[in-house]
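User: Sequence for Sugar O-acetyltransferase below. Tokens please.
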Amino acid sequence: MPDARQRMLAGEPYDAEAPELRAERAANHRWLARYNAALADGPERWHALLRERLAGVGDGALIRPPFHCDYGWNIHLGAGVFVNFGCVILDVAEVRIGKRTQIGPLVQLLAADHPRDPSERARGLEFGRPVRIGRNVWIGAGALILPGVTVGDDALVGAGSVVTRDVPAGATVVGNPARQRPSAPASGFAG
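Assistant: Structure tokens for Sugar O-acetyltransferase:
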């Protein structure tokens, strides 16, 4: 029978408080403490620390501290990715960010999900759905990307948007819930 980590990675319901997952999160919390304490150290140190924990970190990829994630080893950053202050990535499933993507401050990429059935929630079960962000995407400050969403290459996500559905390549989405717009407005893309 697969353990909680194997079930989590397979996208099946799992107990987030299983001992093996608690231990993994504790190790990640120790790493996050070092990472977030390195704010004054600058980009070279941040990049080196990211390579210690994340699944993949392309050349020049950076996340400005503070940064928060569940495990780290489910996160892939393409070359030249820039993530501003205060990002949260719930990486219970794979989170991929394509090269040259720019992510504003306080953005949340959420792969963690919960059962809709109240009896399953009462048992403490969770599951994850991958989040994929394409190449050369711009995600404005405070946006939320929900579980299972793919944002296509060259797309724009407006500041404060809540993205509940896939975003086509080259599209501009804004609002809550995010809806596609014909072209990017002059403002609303802080990040």
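The mean pLDDT is 94.
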